[in-house]
Amino acid sequence: MIDKVVANVQEALADIADGAVIMLGGFGLCGIPENCIAELLRKDVKKLTCISNNAGVDGFGLGLLLQKRQVKKMISSYVGENAEFERQLLSGELEVDLIPQGTLAERIRAGGAGIPAFFTPAGYGTEVGIGKETREFNGKMYLLEHWLQADFALVKAWKGDTAGNLIYKGTARNFNPMMATAGKITIAEVEELVPAGELDPNQIHTPGIFVQRVFKGQHYEKRIEHRTVKI
């Protein structure tokens, strides 16, 4: 098997340059590639197009890249937890494509599956559908949506092996598996790295064929976006 391990996040992200299109896994703050985001911040790459379900929060996750004006365009579904995102959007500093969450997921999945376009009813008759091709199927109207692909997909897994096979844990699975298939170069940071052959093949969520680089991450904060308690 091909050994896809790189020494650290610096080596993994060395060729990400200004203007790159990047997918970043995660939902809210759950399952985000914390080490990769920190390295993008350190590298100070600019004019990024980021494809992510959301834009992090003020002061953490993708919110850090927004604060440093490193993001040119966001392609997202939900962005309501980030005041800086809102400010940049309303001031015209940031290009934004807001997409229904299911459509975003399917556009990414289609990108990984090699399906250039598909029809969906989501968004028909709303601003989402302005300028898009429509077609009727069985008496219902649908919008034509196109795949999403990226120069780099940055994903975070619970466990991975040296061949790039990945296992995600619980809800941290979210957008990570489909994004792993849709990047020209997929980079995985993992909490635990084991030799190839140690993972149960029946438990693998992302086969190593989709992953070009894997490294063991460090110092995960795993912040909770909203802590809710019952009295």
Automatic annotation (TrEMBL):
The protein, known as: Succinyl-CoA--3-ketoacid-CoA transferase
UniProt cross-references to PROSITE patterns, sorted A to Z: COA_TRANSF_1
A matching Pfam family: CoA_trans
UniProt similarity note: Belongs to the 3-oxoacid CoA-transferase subunit A family.
UniProt cross-references to InterPro entries, sorted A to Z: 3-oxoacid_CoA-transf_A (IPR012792), CoA_trans_fam_I (IPR004165), CoA_transf_BS (IPR004163), NagB/RpiA_transferase-like (IPR037171)
Keyword Transferase set for record: yes
Protein origin, superkingdom: Bacteria
Gene3D superfamilies xrefs: Glutaconate Coenzyme A-transferase
Keywords (A to Z) from UniProt: Transferase
UniProt GO MF annotations: CoA-transferase activity
PANTHER family documented for this protein: ACETATE COA-TRANSFERASE SUBUNIT ALPHA, KETOACID-COENZYME A TRANSFERASE
